[in-house]
Design goal:
Layout (H helix, E strand, L loop, with lengths): L2 E5 L5 E6 L4 E6 L13 H15 L7 E5 L2
Parallel strand pairs: 1-4
Antiparallel strand pairs: 1-2, 2-3
Length: 70
């Protein structure tokens, strides 16, 4: 099955959805401890993705489509 990453502007949050649009997992800069201007940094985006990947390991994720929403 195809999954989708939906990234908001500045990658402050990431949502992983299945092909029907159901949320599988999500993470955000605030959830992983970033605040203020640090939320929109490349480093914060890296930590958000790392957090999300830990959540979806049990799902056996093999393929995703990435959509950036601004």
């Amino acid at each position: 099955s195809m999954n989708q990453f939906v990234l908001d502007e500045g990658a402050r949050s990431i949502v992983l959805k299945d092909q029907n649009g159901n949320v599988i997992a999500w993470s955000s800069a605030g959830k992983v401890g970033f605040s203020g201007p640090k939320k929109s940094t490349p480093y914060a985006a890296t930590i958000i993705v790392r957090d999300l990947m830990e959540k979806v390991k049990p799902v056996g994720l093999k393929q995703v489509d990435v959509f950036v929403i601004d």
